[in-house]
Amino acid sequence: MNWKRYERASDLNGALTLLDRAEGTGRVIAGGTDLVLQLGQRQKSAELLVDVTGIDELRGLCASGAWIRIGAAVTHREAAASGLLREEAAVLAEGCGMVGSPQIRNIATLMGNVITAQPAADAAVPLTALGAELRVVSAAGERWVPLEEAYRGVGESAIDATREVATEIRFRRPGAGAKTRFFRLARRKALALPVLNGAVCLWRDGDAGRIREARIALGPVAARPFRARQAEACLTSDRITAALLEEAARLAAGEATPRTSLIRGSEEYRRAMIRLYLTRTLWEMLDIG
Amino acid sequence: MDHGVKIRMKVNGQWREAETTPDRLLIDLLREEFGFTGTKKGCGEGECGACTVILNGRPLLACLIPAAKAEGADILTVEGLTPEQGLHPIQQAFQDEGAVQCGYCTPGMVMTAKALIDENPSPTEAEIKRAISGNICRCTGYTKIVAAIVRGAALLRGEAATTPAGVDRERVPQLPPVGPG
Questions:
Q1: Do residues B40 and B50 touch, judged by C-beta distance below 8 A?
Q2: A3, A103, A116: which to substitute to probe chain B, counting the most B Cβ within 10 Å?
Q3: Is the pLDDT of residue B168 over 60?
Q4: Third-level CATH fold of B89-156
């Protein structure tokens, strides 16, 4: 016997009440594509599962003022197909289109991709580059958690799904001057976890002007989606040259901490791939040549 | 039964109800309580796609869904696709193209193809490959499966398939009859 009760909450207060009464033995479930396996393998436990995907206020994906808001029940399929994301934050639509398989993307949520806390997560890496934050609600109140602080370790979220409901992801709309791009290296083109993935967001003054801000997120090259801050600082420059891009990619390969892995290759290979893929991506984004 | 719960869902057009444990998975409910054994359990870990069913219009993996999550849902399995007489055009196309070897992946492939064609009646080869990227076949190498889905889509559009089927039955060598030594 695994979980003993399965409740589908129809509103947020109902979900919080169920968790509160369960005193730590309940757990939030959304798409469940990771959680059902983890429960089956006894990596996680729960007496009560509280399904939040039927809560109306968690279903939206929309622009609201300066923000894009994504409810906790929004699936990767919905995000990958979203006209808003394709237009304003293509990097996220592209990453969401690579998660799992079509069947997984039809039910698995972006919030789950964050809460499951895997450093390779194809939605969480672009969300990291976009500077996303999570709204987390519990009986005790409400808080906003920057994505980079939502991790305790590999597979370990800072959100306590036995007592808290993460309701929404939001990030600032990148705006008209922004360019974003996702890249990914895997052993097959489908249904394969990435050896390397990355998300780059660049803000420029005009089409050929200086780079005002750069954000680079990489996975799985550290215990969580990783911001390559030295590379970002290097790119923030008036003079955009091939040498500058190569230097930024070299810095990113140096500051990431991939380990030698039987699945993903040696540390040296993985650093070389960061350098190669980042150079290539920046090159394409900046149209140098 | 301890902690028995009643779960109700519409499967292949008919409402069905089962009393079961709260942690039952949809795949097991479909196969063991409702008798729809056409849906296969392959890896049981959401990797292979053999358990694909169409739930509220979308292809999903029955091995990863708690049955209670599917309470009230409208589910189509391969049995619901098959008409009283003969085969569904997608099934016919799989047969015509020889897209079946061991057959274990076939129900999942067919359901994925059905969901694709419902949404996109004229899928390109690239769209088909992307759609079936979550369905693993370890026998055929996919060429015939893709051809079958192209053909099935054409049949469903009411067109004669544009290319002859991959299998020409006249030319399949016949084994000599087995007789007493």
A1: yes
A2: A103
A3: no
A4: DNA polymerase; domain 1 (1.10.150)
